[in-house]
Design a protein that fits this description.
The complex is a heterodimer of chains A (about 230) and B (about 260). Chain A has about 230 residues and is mainly α. Chain A is built from eight helices and no strands. Chain B has about 260 residues and is α/β, with parallel strands linked by helices. The chains are: A mainly alpha (about 230), B alpha/beta (about 260).
Chain lengths: ~230, ~260
């Protein structure tokens, strides 16, 4: 119990440190949110002015924008560790690697949640989708989606942060792994917006929750190897 | 300058004879891209000693220190800290070792105080708030504690890294070129810390190019040359020639011979 409390304290300290640095980091979060908004706008332009088509494609656009912006966000959270080789110092602290992963993932989750909420609102406005009537299932999908991207992104950002080609490698590694989450998130969002006519919403949300659980456990178990020589 | 506060680990208390060697390596070697940075170092340093690790650039000083911190793994051989193998018990070794490296590992967008507060949590420092303030004062950064590290000079960053060491209660302190980038006051702080650590029985291994300033503090000297011990002398320092295993890589054998 004591060990668990200690790990929790370490995780919160890592997340708090990341959040502080992110908030002061030259408006990086705002840039990421603008990037997500531009992605949405470009998708909209590509599909044309047909309102029905835009509304039908909105769940896909929503989650692609969240994932693309998420890749930038989790990468940046790990780039903090390249300040004066902070990653090595982080690895030398006598704390559990699981706690460090949990802290990084928690920080990533907070940023992803913000991105998810803003992008969801933007989708509602840009594509005339009624999100207010389905706010509860949509919120659940955003929370689960944010958690999944943070869980996967934290691991792969840790893997690629020391590579010169990290900007290319991170999406190459992350996107295929995120495919099941993306599928579940798009299906859940579509079902939620339509009022869940086929009663499938719960199953898609469960798929997302299961994905998150598997990725969090796998990340916590293996992140320590990324910190070793 | 206020009196520096060293928090003594229970491991550092007692006669050095009753404690296992602080550092004990056998045929320690490390290759980088096939080239040996360390080529078979067998060295024992008794607990409580202050030892200078000398040698030219590329002699293997930093590599030896980084293996002892667990930052990198040995390619061959074995290294123990306080009787604990760095490969088998890295977590326990990390509890015992403090390291001042060339890179300070500080976060640019956090203030000096926030950086040390984070380190205090990671080190499990009791009375963290008080200890952080004391450490900032000890390294002469109390006036700049609310400033972001991004605006700090290299010397100020090094002072802050020394402050981080004061938050833990390591029984082995590893310092890599501690005087580099420091002004006269900063060098005085290092002198004061070396004297304080020696007094309370903390083992200190200081890597340096020169001995001039260190002479007053060290019990022993180890000179490295091309990854091997060229000479070792003084109290509490014992070295042995390498006896590398037959499966050592040719590059390593060549240097060892």
């Amino acid at each position: 119990m004591n060990a668990l409390r200690l790990e929790l304290r370490v995780a919160v300290a890592v997340a708090r440190k990341d959040a502080l640095a992110e908030l002061r980091g030259r408006h990086a979060t705002v840039s990421t949110l603008f990037f997500a908004a531009i992605v949405l706008l470009l998708f909209g332009f590509a599909l044309g002015p047909d309102a029905a088509r835009l509304a039908a494609a909105a769940p896909g656009f929503l989650w692609l924008a969240v994932v693309f912006a998420g890749i930038l966000a989790v990468n940046r959270l790990h780039l903090l560790e390249t300040d004066d080789d902070a990653m090595e110092q982080l690895a030398l602290y006598p704390v559990s690697r699981r706690a460090i992963y949990a802290g990084k993932a928690l920080g990533g989750f907070a940023v992803m949640l913000l991105i998810g909420i803003v992008v969801l609102g933007a989708v509602g406005i840009l594509f005339a989708v009624d999100i207010a009537s389905a706010w509860l299932p949509l919120s659940t999908a955003v929370v689960l989606g944010a958690l999944g991207v943070a869980a996967v992104g934290t691991f792969y950002a840790g893997l690629t942060v020391r590579l010169r080609a990290r900007e290319v490698m991170l999406p190459l590694l992350m996107l295929p792994v995120l495919a099941p989450l993306l599928l579940g998130a798009v299906k859940a969002t579509t079902a939620a917006i339509a009022g869940d006519p086929f009663g499938e919403l719960g199953a898609w949300l469960q798929l997302m929750a299961a994905f998150d659980l598997v990725m969090l456990v796998a990340g916590a178990a293996t992140y320590g190897f990324l910190l070793e020589d | 300058m206020p009196q520096t506060t060293i928090y003594v680990s229970p491991r550092s208390v007692g006669a050095p004879d009753s404690r296992p060697p602080a550092v004990d390596t056998t045929d320690l070697a490390r290759l980088f891209a096939g080239s040996p940075a360390l080529a078979g170092v067998s060295l024992r340093i008794d607990a409580g000693r202050t030892v200078a690790l000398l040698g030219a650039n590329g002699a293997g000083k930093t590599t030896l220190l980084r293996i002892l911190t667990t930052a990198i793994a040995p390619s061959y051989g074995r290294a123990c800290v306080d009787g604990l193998d760095v490969g088998r018990d890295p977590h326990l070794v990390r509890e015992r070792v403090a390291y001042l490296s060339h890179a300070t590992g500080m976060y640019d967008d956090l203030t000096a105080r926030e950086n040390l507060a984070f380190a205090a949590t990671m080190l499990g420092t009791p009375d963290a708030e008080q200890r952080v303030e004391r450490a900032l004062a000890d390294v002469g950064l109390a006036q700049r504690s609310g400033d972001r590290v991004r605006g700090f000079s290299a010397g100020m960053r090094k002072r802050l890294a020394l402050g981080r060491i004061l938050l833990g209660n390591a029984s082995l302190v590893l310092l890599d070129e501690p005087y580099a980038t420091l002004d006269a006051d900063g060098m005085g702080i290092v002198d004061q810390l070396l004297a304080a650590w020696h007094q309370v029985g903390v083992t200190v291994l200081v890597a340096s190019h020169t001995t001039d300033r260190l002479e007053a503090f060290v019990d022993g000297r180890v000179i490295l040359e091309r990854g091997l011990i060229a000479a070792a002398s003084g109290h509490g320092v014992v070295s042995a020639p390498p006896s590398l295993p037959a499966d050592s890589r040719p590059a390593l054998r060549e240097v060892a011979q």
